[in-house]
């Protein structure tokens, strides 16, 4: 094995430099031709072999590309180019850990190479290795201080390690260097507002306000400037000026409840209703103000105000009226008032066509929407028979309103009648075949009723005709569909397909995370630094989303079912069988296994043929549509844990997350982790129904484990005592 470095003569060295430029310009075919020319004369030149592999990889010949890069690296293990190229291949495959190792090796042999340092910094940001990122960004800046993005990159690195004061110093030093980072007014504005963001994060609000006033004329994002100005004034205790600032913001957008709430926070409780009345007189169309008035009103005042809102909504036929009102139901008195009023309206409208004895005649639709409201009201409170009676009455009144059938379907769903709910929702869909929303809603109810094929057919009415429905929904990253169909398959105990859907959704989140990659350099060039930092922080909490939690629960349930499933040898009880029955059972099991294997091989052959046919069209081909790779896993508990681990960090206040963790850990006999999950459940809600059951299971499992280490048993006993005492 040759590991020495082969030096190229001047002519070929020039060609090699041109080859590197071809890669930067994305001229892969031209670069490949040049590489092959060099290798004809110098077949052992490792760096050229590595570059040839890189070109092949970019020309969609991945396996061949990896082969050449590895060969090139073996020819020259001390070449930073070979290691860098190897890292680029891993990065293209999104294998960031291996790519980082390659970059680290490349820097051993050329510690000041700007391209490697820049790529390494991007990778460290993507992997959230922020402490190491500060070092890399410092080296980049020291290597080329005249490059503005390197200054900004270091400032962001300090901000990400929670050292905004150092980030401010970097920006101040950069400003003194007279190397402009911004060219347009927008870029200058963004850079100044980012500087202000850092000052805010230091907690020095006076400096932040002084800086904000200083840059006012140069800021193009006037709304953000005004928001920060109001915030700093309040933080500094300058209430009158803060109030004035928030009133200006409200005048520009009276529908923004955040501005109104900030203004109300500056007032005494006795002043709040007066302020809201004054604002509503100025901005009568603002629903945000109207809802806050109802939130703060009490007693007779609430009744008068909510009556006006209810009558207006019922008269106009606003389907979302109940959704707007139910937030007040947390207050028992307000709930009672609203219920009394709407029940009274219903009786009066049926009798006189009015909301009350002294009021004018209302349009006939007022009764319809009153019945609709009451149906939703009783459904919300679990009075399902009454809700169904009222919605049927509304349908009899006007049988052409889609929303009525949708609500009836929802009530039936809450009654546990999944098939009837699906039928009613489909009836609603057929009333308006052009509406994508009701089409999707109907498909969701079909999935909940177990009508998987019919749901896919209905969804196919609105997907692309040239692509399979499931593939199109996957391409669109349709999360609700993946969770619902996954749970539909779970209900049928088709664990392979269920896991296929849950893993597809999990891949969406991987894609969201991977999609950041291009922005690590883009945002430094375009100076959208505030949005960039906010996006990084948002991405870190992304898996706390309810869709991910729902998919994780389904995936864990499927994996636990696979883990708990008896092996083929356990499926018949040999102890209670005659020799003839044993032989029959074994033959039957063998034939079933053989048939399953043949079916699997036939499916694989069919998929392979389809892949070959569609390769030239570059259409994605699903090589495992049945999810057999997930179903046949040898490590179901470890696979289940991959869904739960992110949630333990991002949703620690959710009891369900710790329930899932407990179920996995107890089966793995990781008692300390199972106990930790129990402790979390107890701290969140010791009265939760699951807690006592799981505690009993845990104690039984520990007692039954005769091989448990005595020291671990002692720790468990101490912690159990603490949990029970708390």
UniProtKB/TrEMBL annotation:
Residues 583-593 have a biased composition (Basic residues). Residues 598-622 have a biased composition (Basic and acidic residues). Keywords: Repeat, TPR repeat. TPR repeats lie at residues 80-113. Pfam families: NatA_aux_su (PF12569), TPR_8 (PF13181). Gene3D superfamilies: 1.25.40.1010, 1.25.40.1040. Signal peptide: none annotated. Residues 569-629 are annotated as: Disordered. PROSITE patterns: TPR (PS50005). PANTHER family: N(ALPHA)-ACETYLTRANSFERASE 15_16, ISOFORM A (PTHR22767:SF2), N-TERMINAL ACETYLTRANSFERASE-RELATED (PTHR22767). This is Uncharacterized protein.
